[in-house]
Structure prediction request, 260 residues.
Amino acid sequence: MASLIALTPCAGLLPLTIGAITVTEVVPQALTSVAPFKGHKKAVSEALKAKVGAGLPALNRRSGAVTWFGHGVWMVAGAVSVEGAAVTDQSDAWAVVEIKGAGVEDVLARLVPVDLRASVFKKGHVAKTMLAHLSVTVVRTGADSFEITTMRSMSKTLLHDLEVAMRGVAARG
Amino acid sequence: MRIDCPNCGERDRREFYYQGDAVVLNRPSEDAGAQAWDDYLHNRANPAGETRDLWFHEGGCRAWLVVERNTMTHAVHAATLAEKVKR
Ligand SMILES: [Zn+2]
Prediction:
């Protein structure tokens, strides 16, 4: 039987450090989208709480392993199954990276048309938005770090855009 | 131009995809007759002024919105989730 080599979405491309900023790949064990059917949101939230320790967070928020992922859908880091929702295994569909370092907001400000400064975009806040031409999900994970998720097929484009912005910010000193 | 998405908040126009007149939400009944279906499928007003259009928050939460705006002043008055609009 053929032995296949599994590659992560950013294999061979990360880590990348320029100036004070470092990008590393985040490889979730599994990603499962959960879209509750009409009238089932509360029950789904309770079921998730029992299974992964966090229910469905509010719009534009992350709570533990559960992240709001757009209109009527949440993404769970982990393999789960719940009743009353459309549940889809999306584990290999997304490229996830962490970008971290002093002044990381300056890098993202060149690419993302949403105010990500700490005064308005706090830890656990989520933005479904664009990074250059890409649809992305941006989550603040710490005082100087963000998690960025994009479609797996776009991982190289994401890293190219980040790299150009990181070089630009580093060059300004 | 910025659109105030009910899910995401105020966002730049580039995050949205324009579909067209929100009249498509008002699908005629099967037996409404040829004229009603012709209007529904093909005939659109082209007003200079107030419009009511469907926009898709493609680079965001991916919700369909009904956006009321003015094509002469570029003012955006309201954005409502299409699923919440009375039909
Ligand atoms: Zn939105």
User: Anything to note?
Assistant: The pocket of zinc ion is lined by residues B 5, 7-8, 57, 60-61, 63 (CB under 6 Å).
